[in-house]
Design a protein that fits this description.
The protein is α+β, with helices and mostly antiparallel strands. It is 29% helix and 26% strand. The strands form 2 sheets. Strands 1, 2, 3, 4, 5, 6, 9 and 15 form an 8-stranded mixed sheet that branches. It folds into 2 domains: 128 residues, Gcn5-related N-acetyltransferase (GNAT) (Aminopeptidase), CATH 3.40.630; 192 residues, Aminopeptidase (3-Layer(aba) Sandwich). InterPro entries: Acyl_CoA_acyltransferase.
């Protein structure tokens, strides 16, 4: 089979959107593609994805998401694939797409934190190892509305092929999009922006010597400006003596038209000397989730450090996953420090812009 592999361009958006629709993934708007291209961490010669086409015009796609990481004070480049879509008639092309993403010498880590059960085995074949070690196959879920979740299960059992067909959204509710005032503990406040308070928090995080995805004000303003979202994200700050010492970012999603809304934790990071902050922030989100319209709260990337930080809350959660959604390969010169210091959250991956948004009312 003759195959042409080339960088994605805006003119390819209709082809790629059709691929997304064929697997019941949300298509991206023209504004969404422009937003991805405006990533402040993207090198000028770095396409936002790759398209493979055969002589019959059949196409496959993989996106590539560059992100700045900090190893202490040293900035390095990391790259994650996203939205890998290979139709059955192009079976075997996925490996070529993955190898193309990994064909750069200026990248400190190649990784995915969002592989599905079908694509997960591909990454091991291409030299990526399970990551985070001990938790690469674990997702945590806190049930909020068991009836709604049970309703989705009944639909899946009775009509397993229904989700991919056109039809109305199911299991919506009137609480979605009302943006009620949140009921928060004294240490937690809504985070209204990324001002001097945030800059101080980010500086303190970096001074701890961990490996961190960039959370500078510039990066976060870009990340939260994703144009295809339908509901505003939830931003919570944990404070001590008025200063930000931890934060949580969450986003409402609806994985298919037959699933109930889910509140996904996208980021959860705290200073090392705030051992209770992660649990307090997550508990505050769980306490408000029903009022926001969520049937459950979910954390899709977990590390051993996160499990320890969540404490009793982690033990209360349902443990899901199982196929191994996280894999990474580190450049030799950075491997020791990456392994010792990187405890990723969903923010480090593609979750914030690859989740299916709740349909607009």
């Amino acid at each position: 089979m003759s195959l042409h592999l080339r960088p994605f361009t805006p003119a390819d958006a209709p082809v790629v959107d059709a691929l997304h629709s064929a697997v019941d993934w949300p298509a991206r708007s023209a504004e969404g593609w422009r937003w991805l291209a405006a990533n402040p961490a993207r090198p000028a010669d770095f396409p936002i994805g790759w398209l493979a086409e055969d002589e019959a015009g059949r196409a496959a796609f993989v996106g590539q998401f560059p992100q700045r990481f900090w190893i202490g004070d040293q900035p390095v480049l990391g790259v994650s694939g996203y939205s890998i879509i290979v139709p059955p008639e192009l079976k075997g092309v996925a490996g070529r797409l993955i190898r193309r993403i990994m064909n750069r010498t200026d990248v400190a880590l190649f990784y995915t934190l969002n592989a599905n059960a079908l694509s997960a085995p591909l990454y091991r074949r291409h030299g990526l190892s399970p990551w985070p070690e001990g938790a690469h196959a674990l997702k945590l879920t806190w049930m909020i509305d068991p009836m709604a979740a049970a309703g989705a299960g009944v639909i899946r059992r009775l009509a397993p092929d229904l989700s991919g067909r056109p039809g109305p959204e199911r299991l919506m509710n009137r609480r979605l999009g009302r943006n009620p005032a949140l009921r928060l503990p004294p240490q937690v406040t809504p985070l209204d922006g990324f001002d001097d308070d945030w800059s101080l928090f980010w500086s303190r995080l970096r001074s701890e010597g961990r490996v961190l995805a960039d959370r500078s004000a510039e990066t976060l303003r870009w990340r939260l400006g994703e144009p295809d979202g339908t509901l505003p994200p939830i931003l919570l700050a944990y404070r001590r003596d008025g200063a930000v010492t931890g934060w949580l970012l969450a986003q409402m999603a609806k994985m298919s038209r037959l699933e109930p809304p889910v509140l996904d934790i996208i980021d959860l990071v705290t200073l090392k000397d705030e051992p209770d902050a992660a649990g307090v922030l997550t508990g505050a989100l769980i306490a408000n989730a029903r009022r926001l319209g969520a049937a459950k709260v979910r954390l899709q990337v977990v590390s051993p450090d996160m499990l320890e930080a969540l404490g009793p809350l982690a033990r209360r959660a349902r443990r899901e996953g199982g196929w191994g959604h996280g894999h990474a390969r580190f450049a030799p010169e950075h491997a020791a420090r990456m392994r010792a210091g990187w405890s990723p959250t969903p923010f480090d991956g593609d979750y914030s812009f690859c989740l299916r948004p709740v349909p607009a009312a």
